[in-house]
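Recall the central idea of this unit: under ordinary conditions, the amino acid sequence of a chain determines the structure it adopts. In this exercise we apply that idea directly, starting from the sequence alone.
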Amino acid sequence: MVEAWITGAGRLHLGTDGGPMNGGAPRAVWSTSEHDPAAVSAKSAAQGLVTAGTQAHVVWNPLRGELVQLVPATRAGLLLGPDLGRQGRVCLQISVVGRARSPFTQGPMVGLDLLLAWLDSWGVRRRWPAGPPLGVPASYEPANSRRSWAGGGHFGHSQVPGAEQPWPGGIDVRKLTGPDTFPAELPRPRLSAEQLGMLTARRGARHLEAAGGV
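Accordingly, the structure predicted from this sequence is:
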């Protein structure tokens, strides 16, 4: 039996979400909150998403094993925007408390079994149609493959069509979804190392400007 809410997870549900789902292949999208999991709890990271109006379905701190759910599986999250987030029977958005430059699969992943069981119950296949997510800075390169996106399965945020964020970085997908996971071939960056460096610098400058230079 599928459950809209993860049994045993904390909740921070304020009734705000991206609306009803449009149907199609179920998928899960992995992001990072860009916080230190040793210093920031899942609840604190979840409150930050609420403040920004970018609620994921679930915030997970893999170091502490904390799970906080903000949006039920039957509704769209807001981390991907109003359009892409509504595509699929479900499009379950997971924000991992961690940083893209330090892939969270290199450390403890307490609570992963519970999270994966929930994703499995919603029919999210343990496949990575776009291949393993690229590491930083290559993951800053915009993803354009709607074909792989249409097939459902697991994706990094950086692999979502039109995404500009590098999340979750170069994670080990077999550590995450199991040793029997067969991802597509690792995608090759379409930009040179020099071009990727320039792109990263420009986006970093924009983010600092948006934050008021902090």
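The first helix runs from residue 42 to 52.
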